[in-house]
Specification:
Elements lengths: L8 E7 L7 H18 L3 E6 L2 H12 L5 E3 L6 H9 L3 E4 L9 H9 L5 E3 L21 H12 L3 H16 L2
Parallel strand pairs: 1-2, 2-3, 3-4, 4-5
Helix pairs in contact: 1-2, 5-6
The protein binds zinc ion.
């Protein structure tokens, strides 16, 4: 973690969908990983799936006010978004925001303050429309940006500048 190329700790978090590890083990490891972020000052990249309450409780207990980071591939509710934003976290949106049925998520994405917004591929998953279902790659993130810009009522280049600045602020130049 002291290597100059290490800019964050992640993905870390809880996944109760796949449940690859017992939940108590997931929670214990997540806590210790946030503790590492506290000690090193590195931001965290948080993954949470079907585990909103436990994820938020642990982030609050272990990291509130002391750890920075991002909820990656955000696909949660407006409630989870508000809680994450309250704790100072950024939210990162993937190709999901381009999917036809993702109206609720687009509403969340429209309401996130500009200085808390990131985008990502989640490559090789979650390719944006119209490539949904194909292998995702970094070049396709422009389609996610374009949809987000439309939803937020800003220009594409404005949004590009916004997320680039947010990235640099969170992860360093
Ligand atoms: Zn993830």
């Amino acid at each position: 973690m002291k290597h100059p190329k290490v800019v964050a700790i992640g993905e870390i978090g809880l996944d109760y969908h796949y449940d690859f590890s017992p939940k108590d083990v997931q929670r214990r490891v997540f806590r210790s990983q946030i503790a590492l972020a506290r000690e090193t000052g590195l931001p965290v990249v948080i993954h949470t799936r079907e585990a909103d309450d436990d994820t938020m409780a642990i982030v609050k207990e272990e990291g509130a006010g002391r750890v920075r980071g991002v909820f990656h591939c955000f696909s949660g509710t407006a409630t989870l978004a508000a809680q994450a934003l309250d704790l100072g976290f950024m939210l990162s949106f993937s190709g999901i925001v381009t999917f036809p049925k993702a109206e609720d998520l687009r509403a969340v994405a429209a309401s996130v303050p500009a200085d808390r917004l990131l985008v990502e591929t989640d490559c090789p998953y979650l390719a944006p429309m119209p490539m949904r279902g194909r292998r995702n790659e970094p070049a396709l993130v422009v389609r996610t940006v374009a949809r987000l810009a439309e939803v937020r009522g800003v220009g594409i280049s404005d949004l590009e500048a916004t997320v680039a600045a947010n990235f640099t602020r969170l992860f360093g130049g």
